[in-house]
Amino acid sequence: TVQRNNPESSPLHWIAGQRALRADGSQGLLASQSAQAPPKLLAAITAEAAMLDREETTVLAVEFAEAENQALERAERMR
Fold first, then answer.
1. Could you read off the pLDDT of 1-54 as tens digits, one per residue?
2. What one-character DSSP code corresponds to residue 4?
């Protein structure tokens, strides 16, 4: 859903945005909204992602899917 609604965004950007919002006291974003993160943070995430092996990439994908499901469930409860 996040990729469909924000094709220019990657899951790493979305996760970084969610974590930044939580650290700031926010409840996070709905899946249909885009996340903005500082360029330095995005550069750090990109560099870290380049060093991930296949197993770590799989774990990250699972975490992303779980975060997206939680956001969708929250959105449904709010309706």
1. 444 555 556 667 777 777 776 666 655 554 444 556 677 877 887 777 777 788
2. H
First vs last C-alpha separation in the chain: 18
31 contacts: CB under 8 Å, gap ≥ 6: 1, 2, 5, 68, 71, 72, 75
Q: What is the pTM of this model?
A: 0.38
- Residue from 6, 10, 1, 4 nearest 57 by CA: 10
Question: How many CB atoms within 10 Å of residue 47?
Answer: 9
Residue 78's H or E segment, with its range, is helix 54-78
Q: Output the DSSP codes for 12-52.
A: HHHHHHHHHHHHTT-----TTS-----HHHHHHHHHHHHT-
